[in-house]
Amino acid sequence: MSRLLKHAGAALCVALISSTFSPAEAHGQDRSFSEVGYELENRPDSVFDFSGYFRTRGELLHNLDLNRGLTPSGQPLFPTPLSGGNTFQNADMRLRTDLAAHSPVGAAAVKMRVDVIDNLALGSTPEGPPQTTLTQAPIQTMNIRRVYAEALTPVGFLSVGRMGSHWGLGMLTHGGDDLDSDSGDAADRIAFVTPLAGHIWALAYDNSFAGPQTPRRDGRRTLDIDPTDDVRGLTFAVMRYRTPSSIDRRRAAGMTTIDYGAYFSTRWQENDVPAHYVPTARPPQLDSSQVVFRGLRANAVDGWLRMHFPIARVELELAVLQANIAQASVVPGVQYREPLESLQIGGALETEMRGPEWPVSFGINAGFASGDPAPGFGAFPGPYDSPAEPGDLDGPQANPPYDNRVDNFRFHPDYHVDRILFREIIGTITDAAYLRPHITWHVGQWGPGLLRASLAGVGSTAMYAESTPGGKRPLGIELNPTLEYESYGHFSVALKHGVLFPLSGLDNPEEGLMARPAQMLQLRLAIGF
């Protein structure tokens, strides 16, 4: 048990620091807090609004384990079929609905996002064994992602509840509103937004974590039995922002538009009750002896800049994150002498060149995420994983009391730059830098919609050679071609391909095996309403 608790303590440190830096800093149903409230300024055309989309995807994944053998922990870089081979076939679907109930006189609304079906794998709910099943069982789950109220007051815009979150490019916090998104952030918060001096100013208070609950006398409500273990957050943001229609008008007139924003966020936790969430053979009774001092203090600063020129767009986001956990132990009465500390830095750049009559647009994107010299990337370490060994793909970046730092910045998983390495094998961009040239040919109108063909190349390298499975920094070169048709009636179909040419950072030097190329092919169909 002591070994389990020690590993749980290390994982807890990673989880606390990581969650500290994934709060949603934007507000509302839309992509950014700058876009909320516009529909509340006037009396609504309809009391109820209903929108959303249905998306289904089928894909082939070939050799994503790179045929380079197992890591020192005995795991492949990507799952392999049980019966052998190295090709997966997969298909899933999502039905997303956004609901809004407006006050008949305007100035207030209640909104909800419900994923009726959320990335459900086709054929995954059969009734009966494979030889006799004739139907799929009814879907039992429904994910309510957002429920909140918003009101336009004489001095600003107020929103309360569990709301979506997005800021800037979505590198740090992402609302999951893109058609290819798989998750998205949400925050339980009270937020106030007001326009002043040509800028948008926002203040938000978050309740990110509430500890163990006990039923109240009537059995219908609960009570947080230790308020000192709650994780709270406070965010201040300011932004200069223009709507897409305003930008289009200014570009048509040959004008340059510069938008920008910045925020500062802080989080804190005084005490903790790890017995509430750390698994043990026999759960202990929760009393004062289970309360441990935590002393979490974390801060995040993020800046965003967007420049629209008559024939170009340049957009940049940079984040600096710092945290300190005074006491990382999860065992009452056992304390570490040194605090756990973190300093993480990440940035993303997007550029696009396209004139009003150009059939082709192109640009170069780039980004980086600070790393940590501990083995593994630290993208999604399991909550109770043992410390990683050199050559492992992932693992906790902290191992108190021997290693008391977690410095790898993690991009939000819904910020996509490729289709195989970061999205599938590693899981997100962390401890790495990338360069992504891209070009899109706007073929033109075809029937009631538009046809586009694009190609992107991604070259990536690790920040620390010690983090990679191969012990070298070069990771790979990936090519991502796409053919997409989008109609004006909210219908789209896209054929996507990806091929990864792995480099020495993904080899298996212990077994003398070189990583082999991997491929993916996806067909996506989406219908909006």
Q: Key terms for this structure?
A:
single chain, mainly beta, disordered N terminus, 3 helices, 18-stranded antiparallel beta barrel, 529 residues, Porin, two-stranded antiparallel sheet
List the helices and strands and how they pair.
Blueprint: H1 2-20, E1 48-62, E2 87-102, E3 108-121, E4 143-153, E5 156-165, E6 185-196, E7 199-209, E8 213-215, E9 222-224, E10 231-240, H2 244-252, E11 257-272, E12 292-309, E13 312-325, E14 340-353, E15 360-369, H3 421-426, E16 432-446, E17 449-462, E18 474-487, E19 491-502, E20 518-528
Antiparallel strand pairs: 1-2, 1-20, 2-3, 3-4, 4-5, 5-6, 6-7, 7-10, 8-9, 10-11, 11-12, 12-13, 13-14, 14-15, 15-16, 16-17, 17-18, 18-19, 19-20
Task: Explain this structure.
The protein is globular and about 70 Å long. It has helices at residues 2-20, 244-252, 421-426, and strands at residues 48-62, 87-102, 108-121, 143-153, 156-165, 185-196, 199-209, 213-215, 222-224, 231-240, 257-272, 292-309, 312-325, 340-353, 360-369, 432-446, 449-462, 474-487, 491-502, 518-528. By secondary structure, the chain is mainly beta. It has one domain: Porin, CATH 2.40.160. It is built from three helices and 20 strands.
Query: Largest sheet at a glance?
Result: 18 strands, antiparallel, barrel
- Whole-number average pLDDT? 89
CATH topology: Porin
What is the succession of H and E elements? HEEEEEEEEEEHEEEEEHEEEEE
Principal-axes geometry comes out as: globular
CATH structural architecture: Beta Barrel
The number of domains is: 1
How much helical structure, as a percent, in the residues? under 10%
Rg over CA atoms, rounded to whole Å, is 24 Å
Looking at CATH, the homologous superfamily is Porin
**Poorly predicted segments:** 1-31
- Tell me the strand percentage band: over 45%
> Total number of β-strand segments?
20
| Termini Cα gap | 53 Å
- Give me the number of helical elements: 3
Sheet/helix structural class: mainly beta
Any idea of the CATH class? Mainly Beta
